Amino acid sequence: MVFTVAIVGRPNVGKSTFFNRLLEQRKAIVDDVSGVTRDRQYGVTEWIGKSFNVIDTGGFVANTSDIFETEIRKQVKIAIEEANAIIFMVDVTTGITDLDQSVADLLRRSTKPVFLCVNKVDNSERMLEATEFYSLGFEKIFFVSSISGSGTGEILDAVAELITPEASEDALEKNDLPKFAIIGQPNVGKSSLLNALVGQERTIVSDIAGTTRDTIHTHYNMFQKEFILIDTAGIRRKTKVNEDLEFYSVIRAIRAMDEADVCLLLLDASSGITAQDLNIFSLAVKKGKGIVVLVNKWDLIEKETNSARDYEKRLKEKLAPFTDVPIIFISVKEKTRIMKAMEVALEVYENKTQKVQTSKLNDIMLKAVEAYHAPVVRGNAVTIKYVTQLPTHVPSFAFFTNYPDDIRAPYKNYLENQLRQNFKFTGVPIRIFFRKK
Ligand code: GDP
Ligand code: GDP
Predict the structure, then answer these.
(1) Closest CA to 222 of 330, 107, 335, 339
(2) pTM of this prediction?
(3) What's 177-353's CATH class?
(4) Whose C-alpha lies nearest to ligand 1, atom 15?
(5) Is 297 in the pocket of ligand 2 (CB under 6 A)?
(6) Into which CATH architecture does domain 358-436 fall?
(7) Is ipTM over 0.90?
(8) By alpha-carbon position, which residue is closest to atom 22 of ligand 2?
(9) In whole angstroms, what is the distance from residue 121 CA to residue 139 CA?
């Protein structure tokens, strides 16, 4: 299970500044929901060789402090339930406020590790003022300036100390059956799909314990198809905290995604793809997960000639630049194309786990290089002499060249397209590296 840290605190203490610093400083993968500043941000970062998820619980645009308080308490409760550790952020320039006290009370009652992070400690004068926060009673207290980055290393060290090598390596999970996670917004039909697949048929279904308390792994074995379904949808129903479904679904989706080989991103045909779906999609791409997009509730759409084709075209425009993704139109209600969806998910798994033969890879890719050479940079003719697939979980290719730093994005895209055209990587993010030969 991937270790997850949530950043909580009232608005304006600097949570998102801190989040951005953490992630950008570490060259991490950030999904910044730009524009809507109050949206949540989540990403995965690495520090001294340990990887973990970071979630900025964001804030709310609300006019009264009452709404703030209720909403923030809700977020803190969810963070306590879902995260492995909490960074509680406060602001030295305002001192301890009532809202800080209220959040502190909630956090003191939890058993999760809490890192009190006093932000905006930009100078030594503020360092003195910051000592007031010791009175909140947290053992682990850090003084940071998110704007300059000072102090962030210490807090990352402390977080990293809690992360076991297993949690950091989660992605390399041992079980060799394909693992699929059904993810998507509330109400798109995740539970319905799961029920349609595994239903009540106990004879063919056996539950095996998931790696975490909040995902259930169900072994599916029917019609000569065998895989593990990672279910988070059903559990959401059972929990008491269900006020903030959207936040909930995001955390759950990330969790399920981390455990999966292939993500089945479910959309509601009648509402299309949302900004949040796109964030989840790009996070899956960055995490190197296989992806299949399932457009559910296709029964609700008035069909004209080409409507699936047009729909697919519009969807791909939104998914760009990663468009080599299967899109399947299903109706869980009418049970149409569900098996097709599972077949495609299995294909994507095959694509993701294939190892291309080195000789074949070189035959084809060196021809592609011959057909279109990398542009000359600073008078240097860039040559590529050899290609190999690396032994990684995300299909990765190393191209050996005389000038690795002189190959630009367009050429890299060309090589990726050639790989996609000549080998089957549909639904699979691939990585390309240039190495000095
Ligand atoms: P959030 O609502 O908690 O996410 O807070 P933001 O990250 O949006 O920050 C609120 C304001 O505090 C912004 O104007 C930031 O530039 C400012 N801020 C954030 N961190 C620091 C810091 O370390 N020092 C100072 N002086 N200002 C900061
Ligand atoms: P979840 O929140 O993603 O788990 O969504 P549910 O499985 O609970 O489904 C939400 C609603 O959509 C329910 O009322 C379902 O009956 C309905 N639904 C699910 N799949 C379909 C479908 O293919 N067509 C139609 N018309 N409704 C569906």
Answers:
(1) 339
(2) 0.63
(3) alpha beta
(4) 14
(5) yes
(6) 2-Layer Sandwich (3.30)
(7) no
(8) 297
(9) 18
